[in-house]
Give the backbone structure.
Amino acid sequence: MQETNFEIDRDAVKNYFLITQTLLCLVLITFFGIGLILALIHYFLFGPWLCPQQANNLRYRLEGSTLRADGGVFFLFRKSIPLERITDVALVQGPLLRCFNIWAMRIQTAGSAQCEATLYGVRNPEEIRELILSRRKQVYGEKTEDA
């Protein structure tokens, strides 16, 4: 089977990462009294370099019977999820994601209490969700269909 790369809205993902990381700095460090200063430093100095790097390093693709997700800046990750183990692909859009008009795709697998991977900013998420589930059905047939 051919490899299918997923198109990502990198600008929207970059902005989403910048805002969420800045808010996280603000919330976590506020308890120590210097949260606003560190959040501003992150937003204006560190964030403009880090967030584009994070967005540019994201890669999501279907390779045969495997979903692959790559990313990271300081600590790189490469996940390979066999389609056979995927039980659901949930589309999530909270308030911040909605501001940037992007979706998070949460990949649920058998044998795991939490999601195996979260794919941010995939263009046409409904089509990609259907592609993943139909490819799973095509490769593994009826035995993996939801009850």
Observations:
- The CA atoms of residues 39 and 45 lie 10 Å apart.
- The longest strand covers residues 86-92.
